[in-house]
Design a protein that fits this description.
Blueprint (H helix, E strand, L loop, with lengths): L1 E3 L2 H12 L5 E6 L5 H13 L2 E6 L19 H10 L4 E3 L3 H4 L17 H5 L3 H16 L3 E5 L3 H13 L5 E5 L19 H7 L1 H14 L4 H14 L3 E9 L12 E9 L2 E9 L6
Parallel strand pairs: 1-4, 2-3, 2-5, 3-4, 5-6
Antiparallel strand pairs: 7-8, 8-9
Bound molecules: pantoate.
């Protein structure tokens, strides 16, 4: 396994990896890897001959005052995990390689980027779309894998790839969870013991609301109940919302739905989401 930090070596190494037309997968990450990322790597190995993992804490997707400076960085441990998982190449540029002096381009994906986390974190998805487009141009993968935990990010990337005619299969991989249901996240490390115990209310509230909606309770009542559970557990709620799973707009009869939530416990902002069965038509 090779770790590469500059573009010239990346291009040369990618050309070598492709060799005889081998299929290449990219798993974009910001490092601080956990079993959720390793599930992406496993899924990548099933879909491609060669697996590239990028590690880059992307400053462009953090707003002023967010956790860019304290975002966990664990380079050596990450490299060991990826070597054990049989990854072929780690692409680990620094900010000066990704955003050299004079960098002036930003990609905005309208619609799917705008509500939910897009409203709570203005500019966040522009930063994600821009860096992911750069990673796609640099690595030129056949397939790229993203966790469903960042469900809106996945929708933004699907739209980006469709709109810019990028010939890349985008694969969403189900959220990996702790035994008690908490979604794995690099940010869980910020939680103290009390916050960690309270954090499990997030998946529980989503589960209860999902069952209520699927059994015919009104959506508004189910969402209000989920918010109340979160507040009672000590969360400040950004949103709890039921949306169309593809457009992230209003649910459409007969189409898959998704229940998404974002809430803060102490200084930590957690997100989670679950599938909700489509409402029957007519
Ligand atoms: O999900 C992440 O870790 C990041 O948003 C991504 C996709 C690597 C872009 O920086």
């Amino acid at each position: 396994m090779q770790t590469v930090r500059d573009l010239a070596t990346l291009r040369q190494t990618i050309a070598g990896l492709r060799g005889n037309g081998e299929r290449l997968a990219l798993v974009p990450t910001m490092g601080a890897l956990h079993d959720g990322h390793m599930a992406l790597v496993e899924a990548a190995r099933r879909r491609a001959d060669r697996v590239v993992v990028s590690i880059f804490v992307n400053p462009m997707q953090f707003a002023a005052g967010e956790d860019l400076d304290r975002y966990p960085r664990r380079e050596q441990a990450d490299v060991r995990m990826l070597a054990d998982a049989g990854v072929d190449l780690i692409w680990m540029p620094d900010a000066a390689v990704m955003y050299p002096d004079g960098f002036a381009t930003s990609i905005r994906v309208a619609g799917v980027s705008e509500g939910l986390d897009g409203a709570a974190r203005p500019g966040h998805f522009d930063g994600v779309a821009t860096v992911v487009a750069k990673l796609f141009h640099q690595v030129r993968p056949d397939v790229a894998l993203f966790g469903e935990k960042d469900f809106q990010q996945l929708a933004v990337i699907r739209r980006l790839v469709a709109d810019l005619d990028m010939d890349i299969d985008i694969v969403g991989v189900p959220t990996q969870r702790e035994d008690d249901g908490l979604a794995l996240s690099s940010r869980n490390i910020y939680l103290d013991e009390g916050e960690r115990q309270a954090a499990v209310t997030l998946p529980r509230a989503l589960g209860i609301a999902t069952r209520a909606i699927e059994s015919g309770q009104t959506v508004d009542a189910a969402l209000a109940q989920a918010s109340e559970m979160l507040v009672a557990a000590g969360f400040a709620v950004d949103y709890v919302a039921l949306v169309d799973a593809e457009t992230l707009g209003r649910p459409r009869p007969g189409h898959d739905r998704r229940l998404l939530a974002a809430a803060r416990i102490g200084a930590t902002r957690l997100i989670d989401n679950v599938a909700v069965r489509a409402e029957q038509q007519g």
